[in-house]
Design goal:
The chain has about 300 residues and is of the alpha/beta class. The chain contains nine helices and 17 strands. The protein has helices at about 15-20, 45-55, 70-75, 95, 120-125, 160-170, 170-185, 215-225, 295-300; strands at about 1-5, 25-30, 35, 40-45, 60, 80-85, 105, 115, 130-135, 145-155, 200, 235, 240-250, 260-265, 270, 275-285, 290.
Length: about 300
Amino acid sequence: MRIVFMGTPDFAVPTLQALLASEHDVTAVITQPDKPKGRGKELQSPPVKLAALKAGIPVFQPAKVRDEEFIKILVDQKPEAIVVVAFGQFLPEVILNLPTYGCINVHASLLPKYRGAAPIQYAVIHGEKKSGVTAMRMDKGMDTGDMLKKVEVDLDEKETGDTLHDKLCVLGGQLVLDVLEELERGTAVRTPQKDEEASYASMLKKEQGHIDFSMPAVQIECLIRGLNSWPSAYTHVNGKTLKLWAADVIDREYDGAFGEIVEISSDRLLVKTGQGTLALTEVQLEGKKRMEVSAFLRGYPLEKGMQLS
């Protein structure tokens, strides 16, 4: 099958690689334009572009896929299917209707739950026990197309946004190969999504990581894991930002204000929350390296009764 691949971040690379290793003919890769990053603002290529160039596949980077010039390029590719993984732009109907077998999207959730930009992180933040990857036939809505196939995974007790990302990205490749085979054979089953069961996972913002200690400890611990490694959870101590990388939940109540350090041991900081107690085990002070609390306390001693804000 003649395939055009559309994707941008690390998450999309394993699916592209699976297609390149298959009998399918990937004729072109479409990705987002290079962007300036870092303090030097040097242009950085998307991971999908680097993988495509390494494989010798032509790469196109349209600022807007709606531009007539780009659509003509896409038409000339004569794709039988367009595979889309975390591309980053809405596709107009002229593109959706172009391939014989349609545009097939690999989405990192068990649709219809967690439509949107950050399904992986929200699955962890909301304490889900399962997540997965869904292949769907795209339509003009945001992740609203008919589902074609799903793969489920269990979340570990200490699953983070990063570890779940790494689990799910490797599932996309085999999933899309199975779906393409079923489409060719005419055995693919399209299952409409139930909109009433849908939830939206909006793009993450840095301020979402600012911890409100009036929340229950269970919710805060899930938030810390879900936002690991970006944008990361954080609070403040003595006017400095303190990133929170790992914590445990203790089913014990202490007197004090929300965010107050109620107990200090050699390897944990116990903090008062809206329900239960949060035991911080790995932190990072502004300008310092990420470290276990035991190492942190040796260089930055804190006292019981101090407030995290």
